[in-house]
Amino acid sequence: MYLLELSILFFVLAAVFGLIMLQVRRRGLRIPPTLAFAHGVFAVAGLVSLLAGVLSAAEVSAVLLSASILFLVVAAGGLVLLGAYYFRKVRIPVPLIVVHGSLAAAAFVLLVVDRVANA
Hints:
Largest sheet: none
Distance between the termini: 13 Å
Number of strands: 0
Order of helices and strands: HHHH
C-alpha cells in the first residue's frame, strides 16, 4: 500500500474516533482518555504518512499540497484543544470540536479527490 493511501486509512480511523468523541461530548460527558489517545495516534499516523508521501513524491499537485497544509492546520488545532482544554480537565466546547472536525473533513475530501484524480 502506498503512503498516501495509507494516510487515508489512518485518517478514516481518526475520524471514527473523533465522531465517537463528539457524541460523548454532546451528551455532556467528559471524553475518556482512551478515545482521545486513539484519535490522536491515528491522526498523527495519518499526518506522518501523508507528509512522507508528499515529500517522497516526484510531483505534488496543488490539491494534495492544499490537503497537506489544511491537515497541518487541523493538527495544530487539535494540539490546542488538547492543551487548552483536555489537559486542564475542562470540557471542550462542542462548536470547537465541530470546527476541528469540519476542517479535517475538508482536508480529507481534498486528499481523496487527489488520489482519485491521480489513480
